Amino acid sequence: MSKKKPFVLRVDPLKMEALEKWAADEFRSINGQIEWIIDQALRKSGRLKTTKPDNPPENGE
């Protein structure tokens, strides 16, 4: 398992509420949801090209 670097993130209360609901809808923790969102954005922008073998693409992408 890779090391994770902790940091503080300030989020607007309305955005946090939306993140909490989204995470709950997808059975993820808030941290897991934020990490997933960042991962997807990095991949979409071409800034993250590595893939994990235990993490297949979702929705046939």
Features:
mainly alpha; 46% helix
Outline the biggest β-sheet: none
Q: Helicity, in percent?
A: 40-55%
**Helix/strand/pairing category:** mainly alpha
N-to-C CA distance: 25 Å
The ordered string of helix (H) and strand (E) elements is HH
User: What value does the Rg take, in angstroms?
Assistant: 13 Å
What is the overall shape?
globular
Q: Any low-confidence stretches, pLDDT <50, length ≥5?
A: none
Strand content: under 5%
**Contiguous helical run count:** 2
Describe the model.
With 61 residues, the protein is mostly helical. It is 46% helix and 0% strand. It is built from two helices and no strands. Helix 1 (13-25) crosses helix 2.
Task: Present the secondary structure layout.
Blueprint: H1 13-25, H2 30-44
Summarize the structure.
The protein has two helices and no strands. It is mainly alpha-helical. It has helices spanning 13-25, 30-44.
